[in-house]
């Protein structure tokens, strides 16, 4: 299994050309090479991510700038996302609350739920490669992949939060690149490589290079199509029950247990970040009054409206 996984990643990695947009003219067809040692990434063994290249990202020296930019690779012939690359800063962060993204159907998308296995029922999220809180990209099809809730919450979110907190606290810039890894013609990514390095302090504030697994404990996935099934053999001893993070807006008529969906609970919404929190969350204390909105209702109603649960207090 381990050998097969390594061969899969080795075959999936290629050089990617990032073409600059009108707002990033300084980039002029910068060639971005995915880390070659991704071929040595081990198979999933219980941790949502693994460190790549001793945690050293692979940014070109010429990319270190204090100019804001963001670039999203075109969808390929199978409708799959490419590399998402940005220089995260306050200038790029959202100024409006997050909107609905349910109209976007990433490659391999299925609306399916496992209420007895997954806390928030739905297996797949529309995963932002570059999180909404970082660049304010909402329903950008070039920035959304089919990802498990486990990938989104346990894998990607902690690193997104680290970058967001650093930028908000310092006002500095962070080079940030997310590369989805597909095996052959598979429609669902096997995982994503996340790289980040703070610019002004040469990585002293933020620096990482990790690979996050697009898996869901207890669920088997056919990455070629997105089909899935209950598979308890995929559960590693000691794994926690996984909650949720991203948009799970879905088509009506999907079967499943909806117990608890109408439970009335008090939450606090940050209308700027699009996240909701428990009233006792530390983030609520730091929230600006103009962005604070109290809400009483069900968790699922908030998620269906496009809000995300806080990754810290996990409401």
Number of strands: 16
Mind telling me which CATH architecture of the largest domain this is?
Answer: 3-Layer(aba) Sandwich
Number of individual domains: 2
Sheet with most strands: 6 strands, antiparallel
- Computed structural class: alpha+beta
* Percent in helix: 10-25%
CATH fold-type name of the largest domain: Extracellular Endonuclease, Chain A
Estimated radius of gyration: 19 Å
pLDDT < 50 runs, ≥5 residues: 1-8, 10-37, 240-262
Q: Average the pLDDT over all residues and give the rounded result.
A: 82
Q: What form results from the Cα inertia axes?
A: globular
User: DSSP strand (E) fraction?
Assistant: 15-25%
Strand ordering within the main sheet: 3-10-9-8-5-4
For the structure shown, list the relevant keywords.
alpha+beta; six-stranded antiparallel β-sheet; 16 strands; four-stranded mixed β-sheet; disordered N terminus; 315 residues; 2 domains; single chain
